[in-house]
Amino acid sequence: MLMLTAEASRYLTFDYCQTNMTVHTGIAGLAVTYALNLNSQLASIIWNICNTENKMISVERIMQYSRIPSEAPLVVDHYRPPNSWPEAGTINIRSLEVCVIL
Question: d(Cα 75, Cα 18) in Å, to the nearest integer?
């Protein structure tokens, strides 16, 4: 059982497992203040590490995308059909099978 009592409003006494420990209230307040400050500093450090990691991943992706070979051009002049193509405006369909799936 943890029992917290104030003695003369200057000391805190903790009775835990039959051990008596007296802590000055100023030291206890300073310890709580440092603990809260440490928590915010750790959160800030973790945020900065995650932000740095995200930026490093972005650079890695840019490096990967820059190594991808480029596609062929949209128009290749020596493979273009002649300007008169198509010469006849007909469409021949042979062996057409249509299936509707519902």
Answer: 88
Residue 46 is predicted with a pLDDT of 96
**How many residues are present in the chain?**
102
Q: Which domain covers residue 41, as residue numbers?
A: 3-68
- The three-class DSSP label of residue 21 is strand
- Which residues, other chains included, contact 7 with Cβ-Cβ below 8 Å and sequence gap of 6+? 13, 22
**pTM for this model (two decimals):** 0.43
User: What is the distance between the alpha carbons of residues 29 and 54, in angstroms, rounded to a whole number?
Assistant: 38
- The 19-24 sheet, strands edge to edge: 3-7, 11-16, 19-24
Q: Is residue 90 part of a domain?
A: no
